[in-house]
Design goal:
Layout (H helix, E strand, L loop, with lengths): L33 H11 L1 H15 L5 E5 L5 H9 L4 E6 L2 H13 L6 E5 L12 E7 L8 H11 E12 L11 H20 L7 H7 L2 E13 L7 H15 L6 H10 L15 E12 L7
Parallel strand pairs: 1-2, 1-4, 2-3, 4-5
Antiparallel strand pairs: 5-7, 6-7
Helix pairs in contact: 1-8, 2-3, 8-9
Length: 302
């Protein structure tokens, strides 16, 4: 999955950058936590991501040479797709120069610099110089655009005839606490407050992408909703992942949840016995929705 801007980019909906976690709008005190969240998400859910890219590969076919990663963020999708398609090159598109530099540095460290090109672009206005792509991957990014129809038209123009568009979206904030009892209720209240915030800032979050894709001239070949879940024994980094998510949402919830809930959130990241980094009942649950689609040939209907 499921997405990255630093704080100064987060409300520029017309630009495309990976937000695997829209629920984690940065507070001013933690402007740089999102890259680590994205990397931890990829590490924790690596088997799920491998399965998803494998499903993409089955649909895309053997002759994939050029992949476009829209809203590439730290490059989790880029590198997963490079592994899946060993003869392909990836154009990583993001509106954040800092994220692209981080991705380029990771490509150099992995010896993949010859297979990765970075492109700083506002995908809402098209993809300059990108043509004949075999596969476009858009993970937790399209909903950030003011006009998804225009962006999808640009993606359609960038794809070769018969090329594949793979869209993935995250269904809001992941959950970490037991669903029964007060911890689960606290998370539910936080999620509801964040959903209200996102409804104002990200009007296309949770959109019916199947309908939007068909309206934009795509034929949807596959649509799925998949629960990604991790339970004990949790992989290394799960506690840190939960801590960073709660730390980042805490600043967004001032004035949106009650004082008791804010105090409970503070205890979850406060270093004491309730801190998520020390809890024995931690789980990681996230719902991912995916759509696989191809451009419809002229003269044909989806």
């Amino acid at each position: 999955m499921a997405h990255a801007h630093q704080h100064q980019h987060q409300h520029q909906h017309g630009k495309l950058s990976a937000h695997a976690h829209d629920h984690t709008h940065a507070s001013d005190s933690t402007p740089n936590g999102l890259p680590e969240i994205l990397d931890l998400d990829a590490a924790l859910f690596a088997p799920h991501l491998t399965a998803l890219t494998g499903r993409i590969a089955c649909l895309a076919g053997d002759d994939v040479r050029h992949v476009v990663d829209l809203g590439s963020g730290t490059g989790t999708g880029t590198f997963a797709l490079l592994d899946q398609f060993p003869t392909a090159r990836v154009t990583a598109v993001d509106s954040s120069p800092a994220m692209l530099e981080r991705l380029a540095s990771a490509a150099r460290d992995r010896g993949l610099v010859d297979r990765v090109r970075t492109l700083e672009a506002d995908a809402g206005a098209g993809l300059p110089g990108v043509v004949d792509a075999d596969l476009v991957w858009a993970s937790a990014s399209l909903h950030h655009l003011d006009d998804p129809g225009t962006a999808l038209a640009g993606i359609r123009a960038a794809l070769r005839p018969g090329g594949l568009l793979a869209v993935a979206e995250v269904d809001g904030m992941p959950s970490f606490l037991p669903e029964d009892g007060e911890p689960g209720k606290l998370e539910a209240r936080c999620r509801a407050a964040l959903d209200g915030l996102h409804a104002q800032r990200l009007p296309h979050r949770g959109a019916d992408w199947g309908s939007l894709l068909m309206t934009a001239g795509f034929s949807v070949e596959q649509e799925r909703a998949e629960p990604w879940e991790l339970r004990a024994p949790l992989p290394e980094g799960a506690g840190r992942y939960a801590f960073l998510v709660f730390e980042r949402i805490r600043g967004s919830l001032d004035g949106r949840v009650g004082a008791d809930d804010l105090a409970a959130l503070d205890r979850l990241i406060g270093g004491g016995p309730e801190d998520v980094r020390h809890r024995g009942d931690l789980v990681v649950r996230s719902l991912r929705r995916t759509w696989m689609a191809r451009p419809v040939e002229q003269g044909m209907k989806a």
